[in-house]
Design a protein that fits this description.
The protein has eight helices and ten strands. With about 250 residues, the protein is of the alpha/beta class. The chain has two domains: about 170 residues, Rossmann fold (3-Layer(aba) Sandwich), CATH 3.40.50; about 70 residues. It has a six-stranded mixed β-sheet, sandwiched between helices. It has a four-stranded antiparallel β-sheet with strand order 2-1-4-5, covered by helices on one side. Strand 7, helix 6 and strand 8 form a beta-alpha-beta unit. The protein is globular. The chain starts with a strand and ends with a helix. About 40% of the residues are buried. The structure holds adenosine-5'-diphosphate and magnesium ion (MG). Keywords: ATP-binding, Nucleotide-binding, Transport. Pfam families: ABC_tran. This is ABC transporter ATP-binding protein. GO terms for molecular function: ATP binding.
Length: about 250
């Protein structure tokens, strides 16, 4: 059964004039898949991700999560990572990562153990007792990922999570995400406007048209793992997607 089943979802933000963000979007996400939502800025990617997270409701259409209608935010089975990890400055890295478990009422020792385990998974072993201001941007983003993973979600929703870090760190984080995913087998929906990022990460790329966002095409990405930067087949796919984006923007 699909993890997400999105049918005919539309969304318009009120205002004058109103902004039609999504128009008749349909897609499915299967268990264990890494799906990239790729499209130009403003095409409704964040809106769609927020709808998947239950943070927003579509005007029309339906979203099923594991075959059940999605009802509001707060499903423990869904973890979300935004561009800004918003760690609490007064909490240690460990206590930030343990936050979701604390909210769930998991006892202190158990949540600290889980947080430490996930910090080590994202490469932040040894930083448990530091505070967010001690960390670089890339490390803060890793902590945000560890926080989302700590509650063992079935699916991770990520909205341009590496958008604010420098290029080389970004490349490292992308490789780490594939490694983490290999380890955890988490289903991931990853929003990006970076073609190279989508081609490197995705099992399937959902190419969205400019606003209102519609699914222009779903592109399977079968390049074998481990993936290599600058691989000719990947570059050719990138090039084809750039060409397609140009025709869309005209
Ligand atoms: N809360 C909101 N109120 C009004 N307009 C919004 C709101 N959120 C997003 N929009 C508009 O909806 C469109 C899609 O936004 P968004 O989903 O953030 O796109 P993306 O993430 O692809 O850049 C944009 O034109 C944006 O300005
Ligand atoms: Mg966005």
């Amino acid at each position: 059964m699909a993890v997400f089943d999105v049918t005919a979802v539309s969304k318009t933000y009120p205002g004058s004039p109103p902004v039609r963000a999504l128009d008749d979007v349909g897609l499915t996400v299967e268990e264990g898949e890494l799906v990239c939502l790729l499209g130009p800025s403003g095409c409704g990617k964040s809106t769609l991700l927020e709808i998947l997270a239950g943070l927003q409701e579509p005007d029309t259409g339906t979203v099923a999560f594991g075959g059940e209608p999605l009802t509001g935010p707060g499903s423990r089975r869904i973890g979300v990572v935004f561009q800004d990890p918003s760690l609490y400055p007064w909490r240690t890295v460990l206590d930030n990562v343990a936050l979701g478990l604390e909210i769930q009422g998991v006892p202190k020792e158990r949540r600290r153990a889980a947080a430490a385990e996930n910090l080590s998974l994202v490469g932040l072993e040894g930083f448990e007792r530091k505070y967010p201001h001690h960390l670089s941007g890339g490390m803060r983003q890793r902590a945000g990922i560890a926080r989302a993973l700590a509650t063992s979600p079935q699916v991770l929703l990520m909205d341009e999570p590496f958008g604010a870090v420098d290029h080389l760190t970004r490349i490292q984080l992308q490789a780490d995400l594939l490694r983490i995913r290999e380890h955890e087998r988490t289903t991931i929906v990853f929003v990006t406007h970076d073609v190279g990022e989508a081609v490197y990460l995705a099992d399937r790329i959902v190419l969205l048209s400019p606003r209102p966002g519609r699914v222009h095409r779903v592109i399977p990405n079968t390049h074998p793992h481990p993936r290599k930067r600058g691989d000719i087949a990947a570059l050719e796919q990138e090039s084809a997607i750039y060409t397609e984006l140009e025709t869309l923007e005209r």
